[in-house]
Write a structure and sequence with these properties.
With 191 residues, this protein is an alpha+beta fold. It has 7 helices and 5 strands, in the order H-E-E-E-E-H-E-H-H-H-H-H.
Length: 191
């Protein structure tokens, strides 16, 4: 294999670089190693997800098909934060279908789609309590979003969560509902 082909396969990813792996969020490339599997030599990225105490080995040739990408540009992070300030869009479909859509957005690795999930599932102190499954999806989306923002902006995850919460607080009708104001419609889960 020529060096040129290896570089092409690596898509410009380098050791110690932070990347986004859609199914797991932000990880760091610890090494690029070669292994022999079933008689074939395979070049692998060794990606560490410290918070999850997990290491993933991804063939360099597969990174495009799995959707691995570099961290979002600061302009994309700004777009994601601006998305949080928008009005929650809650479809009038069964919760199970909405939950699948939210899960798909979280696992897409798309920072704006993840911020839409955070926005749609966010509940302020004055709003009704979330169901367990809503809370789980919200926390998963918040975790993915805060990890990427912290990696892009070189801040702690706690600082990133504060930035996300500040953006959410700027959204419409996040405070107590005033007379004459509508609250976002949330469909109850069918028993």
């Amino acid at each position: 294999m020529t060096t040129n082909k290896k570089t092409t396969q690596r898509q410009g990813f380098k050791t110690s670089e932070f990347v986004v792996y859609p199914a797991h969020g932000v990880g760091q490339i610890m090494a690029i190693e070669e292994q022999e599997i079933a008689g074939a030599k395979l070049e692998l990225f060794v990606i560490s997800f410290v918070k999850d105490k997990m290491t993933l080995r991804v063939p360099t040739a597969k990174i495009v098909s799995v959707g691995m990408r570099k961290l979002a540009e600061p302009a994309m992070v700004k777009r994601a934060l601006d998305t949080l300030k928008g009005r929650a869009r809650i479809k009038r479909t069964m919760w199970s279908r909405r939950a699948q859509e939210y899960e798909a957005k979280i696992n897409s690795g798309d920072i704006v789609a993840i911020s839409e999930v955070v926005r749609d599932l966010f509940r302020s102190d004055t709003q009704p309590e979330q169901s367990y499954s809503e809370r789980q999806l919200y926390e998963a989306a918040l975790d993915r979003l805060s990890r990427e923002i912290s990696a892009v902006q070189h801040i702690t995850e706690t600082e990133a969560v504060k930035e996300i919460e500040a953006a959410l607080a700027k959204g419409p009708r996040r405070g107590p509902a005033k007379a004459g104001e509508e609250t976002p419609e949330v469909e109850e889960e069918a028993a």
